[in-house]
Design the sequence.
């Protein structure tokens, strides 16, 4: 059954149907654009991103680098809010400390990256 579903989804994707996010490609985007500052399982220059979906912005208690802007933003991270933030961090949370460093202009890359962040692994973590 699973095979049949994958086959059908694959066919839809290859015939220009709904575009499916690519988890592996998302890990690559995370490697290229995020691991300089973030990890999944530990805080670095930026807060840890494990469990980000469903979390309130600015909520990691042992991370002391949040801006007031982030802590007071009231955002709950979801696919949609992450997509907006990664499209243009400074317009979604003005004066936030990440500024345009986490900005991803390419829509497909953002989709893949968010897919990775929904169910991330810590294979790329640089925790020291
Ligand atoms: C130059 C360092 C840097 C880079 C690169 C960077 N970030 Fe950040 N990120 C931060 C900092 C610092 C904060 C805290 C911002 C604040 O409090 O204003 C942050 C905050 C965040 C938050 C909010 C977390 C929370 O707990 O509310 C998310 C989500 C996020 N970053 C995702 C990403 C993603 C995804 C990438 C890669 C595309 C990325 N960031 C790249 C430094 C960075």
Sequence:
């Amino acid at each position: 059954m699973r095979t049949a579903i994958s086959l059908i989804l694959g066919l839809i994707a290859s015939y220009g149907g709904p575009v499916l996010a690519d988890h592996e490609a998302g890990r690559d985007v995370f490697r290229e654009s995020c691991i300089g500052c973030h990890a999944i399982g530990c805080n670095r220059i930026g807060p840890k991103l494990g469990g980000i979906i469903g979390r309130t912005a600015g909520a990691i208690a042992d991370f002391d680098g949040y801006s007031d802007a982030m802590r007071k933003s009231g955002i709950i991270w979801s696919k949609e809010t992450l997509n907006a933030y990664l499209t243009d961090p400074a317009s979604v949370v003005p004066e936030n400390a990440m500024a345009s460093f986490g900005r991803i202009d390419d829509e497909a890359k953002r989709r893949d990256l968010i897919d990775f962040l929904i169910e991330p692994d810590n294979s790329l973590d640089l925790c020291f």
Remarks:
- The domain at 2-118 is CATH 1.10.760.10 (Cytochrome Bc1 Complex; Chain D, domain 2).
- The first helix runs from residue 2 to 14.
